[in-house]
TrEMBL record:
Keywords: Hydrolase, Signal
Protein name: Amidohydrolase
PANTHER family in the record: PEPTIDASE M20 (PTHR30575), XAA-ARG DIPEPTIDASE (PTHR30575:SF0)
Signal sequence bounds: 1-19
One GO CC term on file: cytoplasm
NCBIfam families xref list: amidohydrolases
Protein's UniProt keywords contain Signal: yes
Chain ranges of the Peptidase M20 dimerisation domain: 215-307
Listed InterPro entries: Amidohydrolase, Aminobenzoyl-glu_utiliz_pB, Bact_exopeptidase_dim_dom, Peptidase_M20, Peptidase_M20/M20A_hydrolases, Peptidase_M20_dimer
One BP term from GO: folic acid catabolic process
A Gene Ontology molecular function term of the record: dipeptidase activity
Length: 483
């Protein structure tokens, strides 16, 4: 065997040590985007019908059997491989197409809210026999995300893009923390970036700081007795709930001012003349900082313990949900803003304008003009008062989202007015703004390696040394939290 010269050996060593070249950007992104916009609009009627069917199902968190099945079928029919029942959640799924890097995820929600039954009309009018309604527009959310995923799949199939697209079916965002369990199960491992959106009353890149959140149901157990003949023998679980609520309400003066605490009494007894031996109250604790949420929630638990001690009852509690604050990625948000401005806002028909004015008249406060849904809000960072389990996703992978005007401008979320808009073309037109914007942003992520690299650098800097840990601990999904 011949000996290799020192120069050959050095050459081999240099080749081995040379770093891999970054992927080249995809050429012709402008024409690829134009194709995607045309094809999405061509499928509008089909996606509208999917969204309106889910609106009619109006299934609450972890009970979204029909809604999840419809979205899964739509994805399977379009060539996706669907893994259902992931993370111990029957209605959760991951739909995948393609192979290799980059891996881009799209989030899809589809749960409704209890107590918001509403017909698609501009006056308050519940649907007979139905309790829930899509007051947060998740019938639109899930459908737009599926539409974006399918359009990216077509481009991968045609060889115009390379990589993997994943559509995540994420149940029970409304208090059930569905995405947290999916993150905990490792379903976002190896994903390079995630795109999402949310229905709203304007069009904008989502650059607002959502609050970390912990929720729990506190259950008190007392002794039943006749409330008139032998009240001294009873120990009222309802008294314990009210005592807890009073202490927490006094605590509001002594917590950071950004704190938000809400509760509803879900069970207060059955009859006034029976001392309630069981009562339950459902609490949310929110703050921009997750460590503050932990501290404040611990004080709420102490209030519950004190209430039980003072009323002669016993108490246990079940942690229902827990979500991180939302980690913003300005690099991705600015790219999304550019795409949103290209797509533009919503154009209403004369009938929809008339509907919108009726909706606004029912609100009772000053609102922007109906026509403002046709514009795009300037790029800016805002404070946010809500919470979302997208926050947990944002701490494990670079994440970006948008709000699209699916409701008449001025319409608040979680209202009968939002439900009505979500069941009409007022909603589905805005849904397509989101589908198109997410698709264009995903095309950038597949086609522009420098954008993805910059977003990852920002993500790593923002996360720093923090090691993600779910706020809800190791509990299993609270599949019956809406019961």
């Amino acid at each position: 065997m011949k000996k290799l010269s020192i120069f050959c050996l050095l050459g081999i060593g240099l080749l081995a040590a040379r770093p891999a070249l970054p992927p080249a950007p995809v050429k012709g992104l402008k024409s690829i985007k134009a194709q995607a916009l045309r094809e999405l609009q061509a499928q509008y009627s089909d996606y509208k019908q999917v969204a309106l069917r889910i609106w009619g199902f109006a299934e609450v968190g972890y009970k979204e059997t029909q809604s999840s099945a419809l979205l899964q079928k739509t994805l399977r029919d379009n060539g996706f491989e669907v893994q259902a029942g992931v993370a111990d959640i029957p209605t959760a799924f991951v739909a995948t197409y393609g192979s290799g890097q980059p891996v881009i995820g799209v989030l899809a929600e589809f749960d409704a809210l209890p107590g918001l039954s509403q017909q698609a009309v501009p006056e308050k009018k519940p649907v007979a026999g139905l309790d829930a309604g899509h007051g947060c527009g998740h019938n639109l959310f899930g459908t737009a995300s599926v539409a974006a995923g399918i359009e990216i799949k077509k481009l991968l199939q045609e060889g115009k893009l390379r990589g993997t697209i994943k559509v995540y079916g994420t149940p029970a965002e409304e208090g059930g923390s569905g995405k947290v369990y999916m993150v905990r199960a490792g379903l976002f491992n190896g994903v390079d970036a995630v795109v999402h959106w949310h229905p709203g009353n304007e069009n904008r890149a989502m650059m607002n700081n959502y609050l970390a959140n912990t929720s729990a149901k506190f259950r008190f157990h007392g002794v039943a007795s006749h409330a008139a003949m032998s009240p001294e023998r009873g120990r009222s679980a309802l008294d314990a709930v009210e005592a807890m609520d009073n202490m927490v309400n006094m605590m509001r003066e002594h917590v950071p001012q950004e704190t938000r605490i809400h509760y509803v009494i879900t069970n207060g007894g059955k009859a006034p003349n029976v001392v309630p031996d069981y009562a339950e109250v459902y609490y949310y604790v929110r703050h921009p900082n997750r460590e503050n949420v932990k501290d404040i929630f611990a004080r709420v638990v102490k209030a519950a313990e004190g209430a039980a001690l003072g009323t002669g009852t016993t108490m246990d509690y079940e942690l229902i949900g827990g979500t991180h604050d939302l980690l913003l990625n300005e690099t991705l948000a600015r790219a999304l803003q550019t795409n949103l401005e290209q797509v533009g806002g919503v154009r209403y028909s004369p009938e929809e304008l008339a509907f919108g004015k009726q909706i606004q008249a029912s609100l009772g406060f000053a609102v922007p003009a109906v026509e403002t849904a046709g514009g795009v809000s300037p790029f800016t960072t805002r404070d946010g008062g809500g919470s979302t389990d997208v926050g947990d996703v944002s701490y494990v992978v670079p994440t970006v989202g948008l709000e699209a005007a699916t409701w008449i401008p001025g319409t608040p979320a979680h209202s009968w007015q939002a439900v009505a808009c979500s069941g009409l073309e007022v909603g589905t037109k805005g849904m397509m703004v989101a589908a198109k914007t997410m698709t264009l942003t995903a095309i950038d992520l597949f086609g522009d390696p420098a954008l993805l690299a910059k977003a990852k650098t920002e993500f790593k800097q923002d996360v720093g040394s923090y090691v993600y840990k779910p706020l809800l601990g190791d509990r299993k999904p609270a599949l019956n939290y809406r019961d």
